[in-house]
Write a structure and sequence with these properties.
The complex is a heterodimer of chains A (418) and B (97). Chain A has 2 domains: 154 residues, Sulfate adenylyltransferase; 247 residues, Rossmann fold (3-Layer(aba) Sandwich), CATH 3.40.50. Chain A contains 14 helices and 15 strands. Helices cover 33% and strands 19% of the residues of chain A. Chain B has one domain. Chain B has 4 helices and 5 strands. In chain B, a hairpin with a 7-residue loop joins strand 4 and strand 5. Chain B starts with 6 loop residues before the first strand and ends with a helix. Classes of the chains: A alpha/beta (418), B alpha+beta (97).
């Protein structure tokens, strides 16, 4: 049975079988890539970025930047580009119409059929995508750091990456996720985007959006799931380590805060661009490809600093029809602690606005740093204990990213030698 | 001073003992389902000075509008000054020191 992804196109994995791969890569010029590009190759090959089959050519980049659509009209909000310098083009002998072999850490990754070599105004790209040229915006910084030329063309992965523990069970490709959803008997599912260890505000965001997605469906047997989809990508010092984020989400179910039949933890590989509303649209496409039917968007989704209004990422969905996006946005306000209600409650319900107490991951981290254990109403004790365990097991003593962690951590994925 | 950009000094057992010994047990506010905290006010200029002096600290502009992640030893010094002055309005003096 065909699996239809974002843009109404069938999801097709672009991966060669080992024997064909060995033959195909013989005599290809090798071009090493950085981690971000290796990640995007994995996403393209497995169909996380469907209907994209490779890195965008100039006409598609322009269309994405200006109209938020590919040139065929499919909604697409963030350009997926392969940057390269003139020197590299010359040194590796890259030519239009020829194929090259992308390698990562000396292992072969993918065949790249180079259809186009082009230039693009990076300042214009940044302004269109991020709405600013301020270098403090991480997406602008990434764009400005692109090399001066881009390659467009299809990619085909030459071997499947090995996803290393503890992430192995959490990386489900679009086809695997769709199979998993069927096995669970979920007729709807709601995605929770995260880069954080969960506090109860996050927990209630998930529970609230699950209730929204459940709607009119029968409840004798649970047929709707929450799918936590943690974004694993470039880390900055001070972030929670990836292992803590994923395992702490998973422990919410293991400790019974979610039933086994309504909750699944998973990951996607992606370097966040913090593009706010445009990133929300990108996340919607990504999760539509995973077969998820609903996507929760909270306050300031994928935003950074004060570049976007906290609800820009809600409003952007007003401009798309149901045909445009194969996933329904669930728009939610904030959950906060109210001392009068004596519970974590919802901004759309609680009318003690002058008494409410907001809390965030940063605030909880401050509490812990001061040697205080947060109450279970705010932060689950199982999560608290697991953070420390992750710090010792994966973080070289710290649950937060340090230079030592970045340098010495076990990689999330590796490509085998052929 | 207007409580514009507070620093939350969370009261652990050690700090609570010191507060009690100084007869200031009532000074702490209750927050988030039973936690005790001293909210130390700072103005905009002081906030910026703190963030510059302690780059690991963060102003949570999105949610809590407070200065967080100051190292514990720095907060201990602020806390000791509060005990000494019997007031949470200590940031001017703290930053001069």
């Amino acid at each position: 049975m065909s699996e239809i992804g974002h843009g109404g196109k069938q999801i097709v994995e672009r991966i060669l079988d080992p024997q064909t791969a060995k033959e195909k890569i013989k005599n290809l010029k090798k071009v090493p890539v950085r981690e971000q590009m290796a990640v995007e190759v994995i996403d393209l090959a497995y169909g996380f970025f469907s209907p994209l089959q490779g890195f965008l050519g100039k006409a598609d980049v322009e269309s994405v930047c200006k109209k938020m659509r590919l040139k065929d009209g499919t909604v697409w909000s963030i350009p997926i580009v392969f940057d390269i310098s003139d020197k590299e083009i010359a040194d590796y002998g890259v030519k239009e119409g020829e194929s090259i072999l992308l390698t990562y850490k000396d292992s072969p990754v993918a065949v790249f059929d180079v259809e186009e070599i082009y230039s693009y105004n990076k300042q214009e790209m940044a302004k269109d995508v991020y709405g600013t040229n301020d270098e403090k915006h991480p997406g602008v910084k990434l764009t400005n750091n692109f090399k001066d030329k881009f390659l467009g063309g299809k990619i085909t992965m030459v071997s499947k990456p090995i996803i290393n523990p503890p992430f192995t069970e959490f990386l489900l490709t679009p086809l695997e996720m769709r199979k998993k959803i069927k096995e669970k008997g979920w007729v709807r599912s709601v995605a929770h985007q995260t880069r954080n260890v969960p506090h109860t505000g996050h927990e209630w965001l998930m529970k609230g959006s699950w209730l929204s997605a459940y709607g009119e469906l029968p409840v004798e047997k649970m047929i709707v799931g929450v799918i936590v989809n943690a974004i694993i990508g470039e880390k900055r010092p001070g972030d929670y380590i990836d292992e803590a984020i994923v395992l702490c989400h998973d422990v919410l179910r293991k400790a019974g805060y979610f039933r086994e039949d309504v909750h699944l933890t998973s990951i996607s590989l992606w370097d966040m661009r913090y593009a706010g509303p445009r990133e929300a649209v990108f996340h919607a496409a990504l999760r539509a490809n995973l077969g998820i039917t609903h996507h929760m968007f909270g306050r300031d989704h994928a935003g950074v600093g004060t570049y976007y209004d906290p609800y820009d990422a809600h409003r952007i969905f007003d401009q798309f029809s149901e045909k445009d996006l194969n996933i329904k946005p669930v728009r939610v306000l904030e959950w906060w602690y109210c001392p009068i209600c004596a519970e974590v409650t919802y901004m759309g319900l609680c009318n003690h606005k002058d008494k409410i107490q907001n809390f965030s991951g940063t605030l909880i981290r401050s509490i812990i740093q001061d040697g205080v254990k947060p109450p279970r109403l705010i932060f689950r004790p199982e999560v608290f204990d697991l953070i420390e365990e992750c710090a010792q097991k994966y973080g070289m003593g710290s649950a937060y990213v340090t230079k030592e962690y970045i340098a010495n951590r076990n990689p999330v994925f590796t490509f085998p030698k052929l | 001073m207007a409580d514009t950009f507070p620093i939350n000094v969370w009261i652990n057992e050690e700090r609570y003992e010191k507060l009690r010994a100084a007869g200031l047990g009532q000074m702490a506010q209750e927050m988030l389902a039973g936690l005790k905290v001293l909210r130390v006010p700072t103005n905009e200029q002081q906030r910026d000075e703190i963030l510059k002096k302690y780059p690991m600290a963060k102003y949570d502009s999105a949610t809590t509008k407070s200065i967080e992640l100051l190292p514990r030893d720095v907060k201990d010094k602020i806390f000791d000054l509060i005990i000494q002055k019997k007031s949470v309005d200590v940031m001017g003096e703290f930053l001069k020191a």
